[in-house]
Amino acid sequence: MQLRLDALEAHLAKGLAGLYVVYGDEHLLAQEACDRIRATARAAGFTDRSVFTVERGFDWSSLLGASQSMSLFGDRQLVELRIPSGKPGKEGADALKALAAAVNDDVLTMITLPRLDAATQKSAWFTALSDAGVALKIDPVERAQLPNWVGQRLAAQGQRVAAGEEGRRALAFIAERVEGNLLAAHQEIQKLGLLYPAGSLSFEQIQDAVLNVARYDVFKLNEAMLAGDVGRLSRMLDGLRGEGEAAVLVLWAVVEEVRTLLRIKRGVAAGKPLAMLVRENRVWGPRERLIGPALSRVTESALEKALALAARLDRQVKGLSGGTPGNHRNDPPPDPWDGLFELAMTVAAPAKVAPVPPPRPRAGAGAPARRPV
C-alpha cells in the first residue's frame, strides 16, 4: 500500500509491515523515516541487521538468501537494501518480485530508492513490492511550504516564533537563508534549540543565530526565474557567483529553460494542449505549476531575443567577443554575471526593462554588490 510520510507515525503505532519501500530525493526526510522504522523494528525484536547496496555486479542471490535465512542467534532480522540508481535491472527486478512474494514474519525488509518516475512506479517489480508491503513516498518540501515546515520543527523542540508579522518574517528569514536545503534548515533549527530555552524566539535572536548556509542550486535558479521572483533571482545569482560556480553552467541552465518555454509557446500557438507539451518537454515538480504563468508573461519575440543575447553571452563567458561586430548596442554588459541577470530577467520580469546594473568589484575585491531590484 502507499503511505504518506505524515501518516507513518500512526501506522507504526499499529504494528510493523513485513516490507517497506522508502523512495524520494529529500535525503533528510528519507533518513528520518528510515530511522523511525529501524527504531520500531528494534523495539519489536528485529535486532540482527544486514545492509546491501546495489552496485555493478551485485549478487542478488545473497539478498534472497539473507531474507530467507534465520539469524545464527535466533534473532529476528532487519534486511536493508539500498538501490542508489533506482534501476535494479532485469535480474534485480526478478529478485525483487521473488522477495515480495516471500515475506517472512521473522525478517523485516526495508528498500530505499531515489525519486522514481511514473513509469518506474508502474513497473511490475515496484508494484509487487508496494502490494506486499508499504511504499512510502518522500515528497520534497517546496519553498513556499518551508516557513511552515520550519515552524513545525521549532514547535517539536518546544520553541516558537513571535506572533504576527514578526514571526512570519522570522520564518521567511530562515527559509531564505537555507534556500531549500532541508539538512541545513534542520541544523539551524537544532542550533536555535541549543542557544535559546523553550518558548518564544524573537526575530533578532534568529537573525543573530542563523548563518547564511545556503548552497545555491543552479537548477533552482530556474524556479525563481519562472516564478518572476526578482529578489530571489538576484540573490541566487550573487550566491552562485560567490560560491565560484562556473558562469557557463549557469548560462546553460537558463538557456535550457528559455528554449523549453519557446518550444511550449510555439506548441500552444499551434493548437497543442499545454498538458501534453509540458510532458513532452519533461517539465515536472514546481516548474510544472510555474510554467503557465511564465508563458503568459513572456512573448515569443522576447524569448527569441533572449536566445540571441544568450549566444553573445556564450561567446563572452568563453573568452571570445560577446557582441556583434560593428554594433556595440548589442554587446552584453561587460560583466558576464550582469548579462546572466539580464537574460534571466527576460522571463522573470519581461514587462519591465531592467536597467543594466553598474559594474561591480571583481571576484576577490570584496563581496559582490547586490543588483538593483
Keywords:
alpha/beta, globular, 8 strands, Zinc Finger, Delta Prime, domain 3, two-stranded parallel sheet, Helicase, Ruva Protein, domain 3, six-stranded parallel β-sheet, 3 domains, Rossmann fold, 373 residues
Largest sheet: 6 strands, parallel
- Average pLDDT taken over every residue: 84
Q: How would you spell out the order of helices and strands?
A: EHEHEHEHEHHEHEHHEHHHHHHHH
**How helical, in percent, are the residues?**
40-55%
User: Total helix count?
Assistant: 17
What does the overall shape look like?
globular
| CATH first level of the largest domain | Alpha Beta
Number of strands: 8
CATH superfamily of the largest domain: P-loop containing nucleotide triphosphate hydrolases
Tell me the Rg in angstroms: 25 Å
Kindly report the oligomeric state of this protein: single chain
How far apart lie the N and C ends?
48 Å
Unreliable spans are: 322-328, 352-373
What strand line-up does the widest sheet have? 1-6-2-5-4-3
Q: Within the CATH hierarchy, at the fold level, what is the topology of the largest domain?
A: Rossmann fold
**Percent in strands:** 5-15%
Overall number of domains:
3
CATH arch. level architecture of the largest domain: 3-Layer(aba) Sandwich
